[in-house]
Amino acid sequence: MTQQQAFKEELTADVQxxxxxxxxxxxxxxxxxxxxxxxxxxxxxxxxxxxxSFILRTTAGAGTFMVRLDYSGGSDKNLQYVSIDDSYSxxxxxxxxxxxxxxxxxxxxxxxxxxxLSFYVFGKA
Length: 125
What we know:
10% of the residues lie in helices and 46% in strands. The chain has one helix at 3-14, and strands at residues 22-29, 38-44, 53-60, 63-71, 77-84, 93-95, 104-110, 117-124. Strands 1-8-3-6 form a 4-stranded antiparallel beta sheet, with helices on one face. The chain has a 4-stranded antiparallel beta sheet with strand order 2-7-4-5, with no helix packed on it. It is globular, with a radius of gyration of 14 Å.
């Protein structure tokens, strides 16, 4: 078993992976007061063409932020606001089924964001 496979198994045991979803990565969002202002690095990149539905689950903090689409050439676009907290019963999903996939490089957290957050990212094809 590779180190990455062992990590995924350990993560699955520690974090409740939503049925039908796969753990993809972790992400971060910093407080930003201006809408559309980058608040963290891309939390989905290479998997953007494979997964179309996403769930974010907090590892630290609770709050709201804008999910933005990262397009090459600087033509980033707002997708939607998401709220995350430590209550998995109220988790929010979002999808990218209706967005243009041409030149799409990833997803990132942006302002307006209400809190410093760390979160797990899960994807579904």
